Amino acid sequence: MKKVAIGFFIFLALLLVAAVLVPVIFKDKIKLALDQQISESINAQVLYETDDVSLSLLRDFPNLSLGVENLTVVGVDSFATDTLARIPSFQMGLNLLSAFGDELKVNSITLEEPVIRLLVLKSGKANWDIMKEDTTAAAETDTTASDFNMAIKGWQVNNGTIYYDDLSIPFGFAAYNVQHSGSGDFEKDVFDMKSNTTAERFVMTYDGTNYLENARLDADVTMAMDLNQSLYTFKDNNIRINEFPFKFDGTILMPDEAIDFDLTFSATGTDFRNVLSVVPGMYTEEFENIKTEGKLSFDGYFKGRMIDTLMPGYGVDLKVMEGFFKYPDLPEAARNINVDMSVASEDGTPQNTNINIRQFHMDLGKNPIDARVVINGLETMQVDGNVKANVDLAELTKVYPVEGMTLRGLLKVDADAKGTYSETSMPVIDADLNLTNGYIKSKDFPAPIQNLNMVTNVRNTTGNTDDTRINIERFNMSLDGEPLEGRMLITGIDKPAFDGRIKGILDLTKLTKIFPQEGMTVAGRINADVTAKGKLSDIEAEKYNNVTANGTMAIHNLSYVSTDMPQGIKIAKANATFNNERVNLQNMSGHLGKSDFQASGTVSNYIGYALADDQPLRGSFNLNSNVFDVNEWMVDDEGAPADESTEGVVEVPANLDLALNIDAKQVLYSNLKLSNVNGQVQVKDQVAKLNKVTFNTLGGTFATSGSYSTQNLQKPLFDMKLDIQNLGFKEAFNSFNTVQAFAPIAALLDGKFSTNFAFAGELGQDMVPVFQTLDGKGVIKVLRAAVRDVPVVEKISNLTNLQELQSFVIENKMIDAQIVDGKLVVKPFNLSIGDINMSVGGSTAASGNMDFTTALNVPTGKVGQQLGSRLAGILGENQNLVNTERVTLNLSVGGTFKDPKVALAGGSVKEKAADVVESVVQEKLNVVKQQADARKQQLQDSVNAEVDRRKQELERKAQEELQKKRQEAEQQIQKQATDKVGGFLKQITKPKTTTPPDTTKNQQ
To answer: d(Cα 505, Cα 268) in Å, to the nearest integer?
Structure first.
């Protein structure tokens, strides 16, 4: 509380100080001054725009008014993604004359519609602790330190929202539509601070449970403030939650970092009605018409020091005497409500928290409920209690409104528990829960659940968790005339054994209308007769012969839609038979999203998969589909389904070991339509392996094998072998990112090609290969390619004056290529264009940069005069072009595909074109491979170093543990030896026992 108040006012002061230092008209300078003050004092991101800062004399005349609109404060480090405060409008009114002195006098501070989120981590670190330490304050001799002070008189919050979440307790609350005003003369050291706070909706949570929900808060508090001693004393105060009024007395002292509490609190009203208003579900619009009787007493304390892990002690006592309530429209009342309970903790820790419900009694109409429980400690609990209740559910609805539902039946609860509850132990328990002739009818569905009977017992006679026995001896019901019955016996908690059966018809459509499921819609019918008996330990050890399971199941028109799976699943029909090891699935048909499917096959380890988190579901399926849309099942990088405007990763499910034989007439993936998809997909360990999967698309035929892994969803990997036949160059460019990156020339080629290519690498979150990670090799066969209007070819033609190169056709040409370190390396290949022999080889990077060598062997007479002169200069006097029939031109090709750079790099009258290109390309390929090997070796060295470090760390810990055990063993031996020697010495020094003389013999 102290840090929040101080930090808040200092923050406002910094805004004000910077604002009054500069002229009003210079908004940029105001912004600069604010930014400087904030950076020096606030350890957070404070976001606002220059145009949203104002300083005015007219707005609050004669006061000076500082305003900041759309102010946002965002945390750093652990809170970098948390918004501490979002304030649409902040206004401060201050005394104009005080702006020229050493102390600013603030008349008012107003926050409009602020949203404030206060968060405490498990470590105790708070997101509002954003003030940097004032290093100048500690320097006594620092005369340059500012003497600036600020005096605040009033403040106001309009329509605010406050969230508080303390993960270290764990405790939280939320307050909505908060109106708050306060006043106090902070110019003085001792004064009274008055405040009024209301919240139209207040929620309080402890350990995940809402203890107050949709409550109304109203608090008038006056506190005596002694700023010199940091002592704050509660004076007149009245706090009301719904109709429950209470007050605080005592003091809060804040010496240094610690906070000392000495507080008591008590209810200021003594009517049972007051406490009834804070019971969850009771405070509704009808509450004012509820008739109540009875008295209550409520008081408690909160005393001690709070610092780091030290917490104050606390205690609460509540008593209700002869309580009574009755709804005006219901015939029966709840009577004889008597409660005597206390909660106390001497040091504020859960382990030393004691709960004692000495008495709880209530008559719901004619149905008594009694309970008594003592709990010592909330971590390792010592429990001693019992609950007894005999409730006619029809009588219950006559006392308490159950809106939209009709209930009947006799519910009997008789439970006793005594002993220790922890991870390894259970109290001795004997609990019976029986329901007879139950009836449930919802207004949303006309058919009721009838003949609902359940006999359940929970028993533990030893206190060991493995001796716990949960026995649902009998369960049966009828829903709209369709019966369902079952039984289940579970023994043990850690490694339970089970023996159960369920038989009948489960109509999910009707059931979920009676009991709606938030966030999901389920419909359909399941007709099942299944029995199962065994132990979870046998399932985990895959000893299925020790498990008995058999039965049948028929599914009709099952549908499932949820927030996590908005695409939905529909199963029109399916039949399954069970045995110990597998499920035989027959005649399954339905839709996954918009995709139809038909399936049959077998599933094994289904019990292990259902009961254990780390057990895989194994099986083999034949899967057929007319149209399957993969795009529906793509997810973004956070695992959420991708919408039409985004792309995402197709995740391979975990805990599956399946072989899918696929036969699909059409598959939609990204912008591709694949037809006649056939082959096998194996799914295991989040890796999908493709075995001879064939399909047709873009007019070509594809066959692929390989793998796709999402073991790291942020870095999915693939390894593919492709056999593509008769694919058009332009179709390939328009559909495949790899072709666009490495072979943009395909966009201008008319013709087709075939290829056998293998490559591997990493995929990005958009399912596009990360080109820098690719490696591969293969052969590309150009079936036919018409080359015209290609920029790089035009540049070569213009440089050499060879018009034949403007347009030509390539047919049946084999080209070897490799992808090395993210570059496509094309090995030299030869072309004959008229009487020109051409050889080409080089590389293209994913960035678009080219590095090719092209050699042209041409008749000497075709070499133009200008190029011939340059060539002669390169060749030198020893090689005369006049007497030479042919000459080889060595050209370097760089730049990009759209902006190529072509230059004459050399020539020869002796070397063949192929030899020139071969030597140059091989040299470049060697360099690329060396770079790739160096990168891989560096990565491997890093991995090896980490492995070695972990190995050494484990060895060190093992040695320390071994040394510790040796020392413990030596100490134990010494102790045993000492005990034996000591025992021996005691024996040899022990005085002999003598028999006293029989004096009776001497007496006569």
So the answer is: 57
